[in-house]
Amino acid sequence: MISKEYFVHESSYVDEGVEIGKGTKVWHFSHIQGGTKIGEYCVFGQNVNVGNNVVIGNYCKIQNNVSLYEGVELQDYVFCGPSMVFTNIIEPRCEFPQQGSEFYKKTLVGYGASIGANATIVCGHDIGRFAFIAAGAVVTKNVPDYALMAGVPAKQIGWMSRHGVKLGSADAEGIMTCSKSGWKYQEAVPGVLKCLDWPEGKEVESRKWEVNLGLG
Ligand SMILES: CC(C)(COP(=O)(O)OP(=O)(O)OC[C@H]1O[C@@H](n2cnc3c(N)ncnc32)[C@H](O)[C@@H]1OP(=O)(O)O)[C@@H](O)C(=O)NCCC(=O)NCCS
C-alpha cells in the first residue's frame, strides 16, 4: 500500500514504483527513481537525485545537491550534508560501462550517522551507527560506530557522541562523557565504543519509546 501522506514540490519528479512514507517532504528540482523505498518524515532538499532501488529509513535528512545511487542504504536518522557524494562503481570506465545492479557495490549508512558537506563515500563500505564524517572527508574503509573521521583519505580523529559532541579524554575508568547529554561512553575493546546509557542494538525500539514520552 503506497501512502500519499507526503509532500512533493511541483518541480520534482517521482517515478512509478516508488514508496514514500507519511510526513516525508521532497523539495525543489529533485528526482526519485523507480523501485526506491523511503520511510516516514524524511526531508529531501533541492536538487536531490535518488537512484533506482535505494532504501532509506525514517527521519533522514538529505541536504541540497546529493545523489543517492543504487546500492546505497540509509538506516533511520541519517544526515547527508550538502553536496556530499556517494559512489556505486569502484572502477568506472566510460568505454566499457558497468551498468546493472550486479556491478553496484553496496554502501550501508548506520542509524544516526552524519556525513558532512562535500564528503565522498567510496562504495563498498559501511558507515557505523552514530559515526560522523567530517566535511570534505573521503571515506575509503568501513567506519566504526561513533567514529569521527576526517581528511583524505579519512582517518579516525576521535569519537562523536550520539548527540553530536566530540568526546574528550577518558577518565581513570576509561569513561568519556558527552558534554551535551551527560551520557557516558566506553571502549568495550580497543576501537569499539559503546554507550553506557543507551541500549545498544535496540535504537529503533528505544527511539519510539522516547518519542512517545515526548522526550525526542
Ligand atoms: C569534524 C568537525 C565536526 C570538527 O569540529 P570541531 O570539533 O569543532 O573541530 P575543531 O575546529 O576544534 O578542529 C579540530 C581539528 O580537526 C581539524 N578539522 C576540523 N574539521 C575538519 C575537516 N572537516 N577535515 C579535516 N580536518 C578537520 C581542525 O583543523 C583541527 O585540527 P588541529 O587540531 O590540527 O588544528 C567539523 O569541523 C566538521 O567538519 N563538521 C561538519 C560540518 C558540515 O559539513 N555540516 C553540514 C551541514 S551545514
Structural summary, described in words:
With 216 residues, the chain is mainly beta. The chain has one domain (7-169): 3 Solenoid (UDP N-Acetylglucosamine Acyltransferase, domain 1), CATH 2.160.10.10. Helices cover 5% and strands 30% of the residues. The chain has one helix at residues 203-212; strands at 7-8, 13-14, 19-20, 25-26, 31-32, 37-38, 43-44, 49-50, 55-56, 61-62, 67-68, 72-74, 79-80, 85-86, 107-109, 114-115, 120-121, 126-127, 132-133, 138-139, 147-150, 155-159, 175-177, 184-189, 192-195. The protein has a nine-stranded mixed beta sheet with strand order 1-4-7-10-13-16-19-21-22, with no helix packed on it. The protein has a six-stranded parallel beta sheet with strand order 3-6-9-12-15-18, with no helix packed on it. The longest helix has 10 residues, at 203-212. The protein is globular, with a radius of gyration of 18 Å. The mean pLDDT is 93. The structure holds coenzyme A (COA).
